[in-house]
Structures are given as structure tokens and as C-alpha cells.
UniProtKB/TrEMBL annotation:
It is a multi-pass membrane protein. This is L-cystine uptake protein TcyP. One of its GO terms (molecular function) is symporter activity. SUPFAM superfamilies: Proton glutamate symport protein. The lineage of its organism: Bacteria, Bacillati, Bacillota, Bacilli, Bacillales. It comes from Sporosarcina ureilytica. Belongs to the dicarboxylate/amino acid:cation symporter (DAACS) (TC 2.A.23) family.
Amino acid sequence: MNTFLLLLNIIGLLVLIGVLYVMHRKKVSFSKRVFTGLGLGIGFGLILQFAYGPHSEVLLASVPWFNLVGVGYVKLLQMIVMPLVFISILAAFTKVTIGKNFGKMAGSILGILIGTTAIAAVIGISITLLFGLDASEIVQGEAELARGASIEERSEGVVDRALPEQILDLLPANPFLDFTGARSTSTIGVVIFAAFLGFAYLTVNRKEPESAAIVKKGIDAVYALIMGVVRIVLRLTPYGILAIIARTVATSDFGAIYSLGKFVLASYVALGIMFIIHLIIITISGLNPLTYVKKAGAALLFAFTSRSSAGTLPLNINTQTNRLGVPDGIANFAGSFGLSIGQNGCAGIYPAMLAVMIAPTVGQPIDAQFIITLIVIVAISSFGVAGVGGGATFAAILVLSALNLPIALAGLLISVEPLIDMGRTAVNVSGSMTAGVTTAKVSGELDTEIYNGSIEEQTVEA
């Protein structure tokens, strides 16, 4: 390996980081710095791709240094997810309004998340049929066969779980364990624990107002401290996006993407239509969809580049509260539930497309009965996925197994999985933000002055 070239790559990354830092010192807006980071990352990644090739020794040696910035940033975001969710929801209860409207709020958020996932399934089915996608046309190499075997192994003990068991897994038997993120449903567990403490606070406030005042003062102090940490971490967003997208572009296998280009194109058409559905829902609720796009853009861009809904959560919540005018409680519930329930991209479009592609390989006709069954299963599984680990792979396992389709064929798309997962994650996050904004508007709790205010005067990092 050429050490000089490795150092050159690292220096190149540091120079681009320096450019973003200069923009920060010159008070360039957060959104402009984020999109500049994206552009610089794409350009730098393409240079590395064409200079070395995606599998070169020099490039592979450079990846850990890129990860130091990109993955390091994602880890910092993940660090603040649990404290942010917990204290924000608990603080929302001290404002009383969430206690009065908790049932309606939670029902609205869950209804939108699961309902849009059913719509996502319809879109996935329609686009797959329109493009004529068929799993039998995809060549299975060693990587695909290995991935298929891995999926079958991971599916053991998953497909036999009943929905009530999956729902039980949401409950926090040990909330302190959930604070460590040890379970796939830990975030939901923390939400439930915070809600119980919130209702307990309301009871104390009625019976012992003096004690409640002390509790509220402590909660407000901790909330201010956690939000200070959030703001510090979010300032690093442009640098994180730069490093993540540069690494992604530099190491992408464009040959594999080209060979499966039809599926990639179909996937992004379906994801694009689903995003338009989100904008239609925003419009129906009486809000300007273009304002939503403009103000949610930075959060959705980070979701796209990082492929991490959990990592995007702090940015998601701050965007909802500081730019879209959603109250803290609603923003946190929508963002947190959206991590595991009703993911439009991963649990809606993706398993629906796979099922329609795979069904003909085993002689299953794509008739009305199959389509209706598939939509219902996708909608139900989008809720149950949280109890078994979440993500597109487990959503596919649940749906394919429920339809008696071969699970191993879900590994056919391993070579383009990262590229598609970028779009899926962005749509997942948009779905949760749509649920938050719509619920706040319908309940009359949306601050329309913030929603319609100038983006130049708003920031998620101030």
C-alpha cells in the first residue's frame, strides 16, 4: 500500500472539513453548510472512486479515517437519543396538555404511521408490476447465496412469534436496560417508561403541588442540559455528512448498481411517490408542503446519507420543534415510534416489492386475493417488526414467511442494498415527521408562526 496516497486522501478530507469550518465562522446558514457538505462529499468520493477503484487497497485503508468523522458523528447522535427521548417526553407532561390529549395524540401518530405503510405497500406492488420485476431474472452469485443463507438462519425463531408476543416485547421490563439500547425495541421502552413517569407527575401535581413544583424544576434543569448537548452535537452535522457520503460514493460498486439498475430505479420511483404522499397529507392538513420540504430537508438529507433512522432522531425532533412548530411531546412520540413502527420505506415498500418479485418463482399468481393479503400483512408486520429487531430484513422475513414464500431470495439484492437503503431511511424519517406535523396541526397544537417563519431565522443547532 502506498502510504503517500493514504496521507493524501486524509489531507483531502481535512481540507474539505476546513472549508466547512470557514463557512461556519462566516455565519453561513446551517442548511447551506449541510448541502455544501453533501456536494463536497460526492465530488471527493467520485475522485477517489475513479482514481483507485472501489476495492483498492489504498481506498480500503482510507475508510477507517473517513469513519472517524462520519461514523464518529453517528455515534455521538446515538449517544444522545435515549436521554433526549426520555427527558423531552417527561418535560412535555409537565406542560399538562399532553396528559389531557395523550390518547388522541398517540392514536393519531400510530394511525398515520401504520396507514401510510399500507399505502406504501400498494405503491410497492404497483411499481413492481409496472416495471415487470422478477426475482428469477437476478443472477445469484456467492455473495447473494451467502446473504440468503444468513437470512434463513436469522429467521429462525422470528417467523413463529405471534403478534401479542411482539407487542409484549415493547414493554420495558427493565427500563435501565433499555437506556443502554440493549433491545431492538429499547427506544419504545424508554418512551413508555417516560410516559408512566409523566402520568405519575400529573397525579403528584394534583395531590402535592409543592412536591410537583420541585420535580418540575429538576426536570426543566435536566432538559436544558440535555438540549445543550444536542445543540453541540448537531453543529457537527455538515462534517458528518461530508465524510459519510464521500466514503459511500468512493466504495460503491457501480458495476453491480448498473446490473440491477432496473430494480434500483423502480425502488426510487416508489420511494419518490411515497414522499409525494407525505406532502399530500401535509397539504390536506392545511399546511404548505413546500415549506415542509424546505425545513425538513437537512434532516432528510442526513437520514439519506447515514442510513440510520436512530442516528437521525435528534435532528428529526429538533427540526420538528424548532422549524416546523411541533410541540416537544408530539415530536418525540412521532420520532420515537417512527423508529420501529410503520416504517414506510423499510417495512412498507421494500417487503411488498420483494413479495411480488418472488411470488412468480414459486407459481403464486399475483391476483386480487394475493395483493389484498399482502397489503394487510405488510401493515400488521410494520407494527410487529419492532418486537423482532426492526429494519428491512426482518420486515421482509415476516412478510415472506407469512405468504409462504422463500425467505432466502431476500438476499438477491445485497449488492445494491446500501444504495436503496439510503432512500428507504429518508422516507422512514419523513413518515415519522409527517405523523408529528399532521397530528400537531389536527390537534390544534402546531405553532403555525414557527412553521411559516423564515428558515433563515431558524436553526436546529443554535
